[in-house]
Amino acid sequence: xxxxxxxxxxxxxxxxxxxxxxxxxxxxxxxxxxxxxxxxxxxxxxxxxxxxxxxxxxxxxxxxxxxxxxxxxxxxxxxxxxxxxxxxxxxxxxxxxxxxxxxxxxxxxxxxxxxxxxxxxxxxxxxxxxxxxxxxxxxx
Length: 140
Hints:
The structure is a single chain. By secondary structure, the protein is mostly helical. 71% of the residues lie in helices and 0% in strands. The two termini are 25 Å apart.
């Protein structure tokens, strides 16, 4: 299979994963299929995954994570600074998977393929060909 199609698939899969998770925490998915369903539930989950963060800082962590996921998702979808945002996505997903592991156990990140997504992001960052990317249009 052609590498350029694999790269597009990786970009779209990672981007949609990030954006879907953000849509969930804003209540944009039906409650029957939501992980959080609303912002407050997501903030509670953020506290569960980050028990060492002081309570008054949890809202900031939740906002920061959401901002980064939206930024990374849109950048990957558009193919803007793909290598850079793929590397950052790999790190963010790895940190998320480790937080899940240390706070709730290994089963969650394995069942939700968090480490697989992290590896996919790192793999994406190694692909140099540009296809259907804003980077190609911008010449970067």
